[in-house]
Design goal:
It is found in: Cell membrane. The protein is mainly α and 322 residues long. It contains eleven helices and two strands.
């Protein structure tokens, strides 16, 4: 408890600051330099918004961990939980949508459903659907979040009715929607994308393959421990490993894997944007405009700002992204 009171607020604060700066930079670049948004740009914009929602909950959780009791009232318990869950599911669903969009553009280049003339309308429809899906997946946890007066003080946690299957359903929902579905989609899509890119004689194909592997690997590394512990707690509900020691170990493990998973929202801007040369140049351009004394000596390639997009299959994954 004493270690958590120092470690968790410190880590949450670092994640909040780094993630807020990175995602804010993504939003600034998308809003300022992309006048004609396509599906990938809209997905990246909403992915950054999802991470912002998730990040907004971290200061409250940091304060909760520091003082070991909830001091913000019942309404804020529901509101902060809603921010947390919407950001959690929103970032995952928009990541899935980006993966499917890349797969469709590269594998089915000439028959991609979202053509140039329908990209805006399709993007809006998909964005609304993803947010509705995120809200639906978040509702059970938000509804059952309650503030209770325990012996150690006020707590904000998910309180499920006794004798019901809600806890098991929520655990299954997190495992299926939080890991199994996105990981399956990513592995399927990227195993089809990578051979196509490798068969194309392009200087950028190795960067593309590297990006694909980073996307899958980072997502798997950061979210798998969390989902494993969730699955163990799911088994714990059915009487497996039903000892006090296992209960204590699972609660302790949940703190660690949860903090590891939290760090993923900091990496999304790096994975999806910062690896692109065009984004780095745009980011430097904004920083030079805002902070000329600090970033005035950095050089950028002006040709990156021409805004022209190529339709060649070998470079579509880069030219249609930031």
């Amino acid at each position: 408890m004493a270690f958590s009171r120092v470690f968790l607020p410190s880590l949450y604060s670092i994640v909040f600051i780094v993630g807020f700066i990175g995602n804010s930079l993504v939003l600034c670049i998308l809003i300022k330099y992309h006048k004609r948004s396509n599906v990938s740009d809209v997905c990246l914009l909403n992915l950054a918004l999802s991470d912002h929602l998730f990040l907004l909950s971290l200061p409250f959780w940091a304060h909760y961990a520091a003082v070991t009791q909830w001091t913000f009232g019942s309404f804020m318990c529901h509101a902060v939980t809603a921010l947390y869950m919407l950001g959690f599911y929103g970032s995952i669903f928009f990541m899935i949508l980006m993966t499917i969009e890349r797969y469709s553009v590269i594998v089915y280049t000439y028959t991609w459903l979202f053509s140039k003339h329908r990209s805006i309308r399709a993007s809006i429809a998909l964005v609304l659907f993803m947010w509705v899906l995120s809200l639906g997946a978040s509702l059970p946890t938000v509804i059952f979040s309650q503030v209770r007066n325990e012996s150690e003080g006020w707590t904000c946690s998910v309180e499920l009715p006794n004798g019901t299957v809600w806890r098991s359903l929520i655990y299954m929902e997190v495992n299926i929607l939080g890991l199994i579905v996105p990981l399956s989609v990513m592995v399927f899509c990227y195993t089809r994308i990578i051979p196509i890119l490798m068969s194309i004689k392009s200087q950028k194909k190795h960067k593309a393959v590297k990006l694909m592997l980073v996307l899958v690997s980072v997502f798997f590394l950061f979210w798998t421990p969390y989902n494993i512990v969730i699955f163990l707690k799911f088994l714990h509900q059915f009487g497996y490993m039903n000892t006090c020691q296992w209960d204590q170990d699972l609660n302790m493990a949940m703190q660690w894997v949860e903090t590891i998973a939290f760090c993923h929202c900091c990496l999304n801007p790096i994975i999806y944007a910062f690896v692109g040369e065009k984004f780095r140049n745009l980011a430097l351009k904004i920083l030079k405009e805002r902070f000329p004394l600090c970033f005035g000596h950095w050089r950028t390639t002006e040709s990156e700002f021409s805004g022209k997009r190529t339709i060649r299959q070998s470079s579509v994954i880069f030219r249609t992204k930031i």
